[in-house]
Write a structure and sequence with these properties.
The radius of gyration is 24 Å and the shape is globular. The termini are close together. It is 78% helix and 0% strand. Helix 1 runs antiparallel to helix 13, helix 10 packs antiparallel against helix 13 and helix 12 packs antiparallel against helix 13. The protein is mostly helical. It has one domain: Orthogonal Bundle (MetI-like fold), CATH 1.10.3720.10.
Length: 310
């Protein structure tokens, strides 16, 4: 509990600094939201009235104070273009992005970690060489290329999985989720495979592993009870980084498969200069990064009690 409290206290100034950077970074972006909404043929009076209505005529420091006050009260504002509350738009697009991110992480871990461990247990064998080549191919494949190849193979040629949309109902959503999940999951599995292999190779060459084997402890116990737990520390770190990267960067995959999500919402807000939506998405991304990092730090102590904070 002391560790959690300390981390939460550290997160408070981090959130404040992040909110400040987001606010001023968006204010230096080129473009006028009022001009985007009303069009280039709008009169100066109409533009002036809209800027006043949106609070853009106030000094930047006053806009900043209003911005902080609204955020602390849970008010993220309304979309400039549609007038819809930002929280409503985020809530509608949050679940598809989180579902895609978590399912991709699961596929990446299921494929990458066991294969990486197997390669480490058989170093320089044909299995190791083959798996390293496969991991390199998956790791080097950009999401848009892999996504298009999966669409061509499993949607257009074999007609097994749908290529667009998010589906309706549980089974429909699950069916539409398969190709986007494997698009990101295969790439992540390449990362997991290489980290798991390198970490396991380092652990099985440690002195305590040789000592355990010399004492006659069965090889399976040595590998899975001792070496595996210690080798998971770097892998957990990579998983945490990948989760935050997927949540904030799934826009390419969402665009390829025409899926709703936070990435598509944020890109649309950039195009229309919709500050309220973009601020809400960026704040959510920042909070998710802080939350995931906290979970990763806590999980370290469960995997290896020796590094548990005291």
């Amino acid at each position: 509990m002391k560790f959690l409290v300390r981390r939460l206290l550290v997160a408070i100034p981090t959130v404040f600094i992040t909110l400040t950077i987001i606010f001023f970074a968006l204010r230096v972006l080129p473009g006028d939201p009022a001009l985007v909404i009303l069009g280039e043929n709008a009169s100066e009076d109409a533009l002036k009235n809209l800027r006043q209505q949106m609070g853009l005529d106030l000094p930047v420091w006053q806009q900043y104070l209003h911005y902080l006050g609204n955020i602390l009260s849970g008010d993220f504002g309304e979309s400039i273009a549609s007038g819809t509350p930002v929280m409503t738009l985020i809530a509608d697009n949050f679940l598809p992005t989180i579902t895609l991110s978590i399912s991709s992480i699961v596929v990446g871990c299921i494929l990458g970690i066991p294969i990486g461990i197997l390669s480490a247990l058989k170093p320089n064998s044909w299995i190791d060489s083959f798996m390293r080549v496969v991991s390199f191919i998956w790791l080097s494949s950009p999401p848009f290329l892999l996504g298009i190849l999966l669409i061509l193979a499993f949607s257009l040629k074999l007609n097994v999985f749908p290529s667009m949309g998010s589906g309706e109902g549980f089974w429909g959503s699950l069916f539409h989720l398969i190709l986007p999940t494997f698009t990101l999951g295969l790439i992540l599995s390449g990362v997991m495979m290489r980290f798991a292999r390198a970490s396991m190779l380092e652990e099985i060459n440690q002195d305590y592993i040789r000592t355990a084997k010399a004492k006659g402890i069965p090889n399976k116990v040595v590998i899975f009870k001792h070496a595996l737990r210690n080798s998971l520390i770097p892998v957990i770190t990579v998983i945490g980084i990948d989760i935050t990267a997927l949540i904030s960067g799934a826009v390419i995959t969402e665009t390829i498969f025409s899926r709703p999500g936070l990435g598509s919402l944020a890109v649309g807000a950039i195009v229309t200069r919709d500050f309220a939506i973009l601020q809400g998405c960026l704040i959510l991304f920042a909070l998710l990064v802080i939350f995931v990092n906290l979970i990763v730090d806590v999980s370290y102590s469960f995997v290896n009690p020796k590094i548990r904070p005291r």
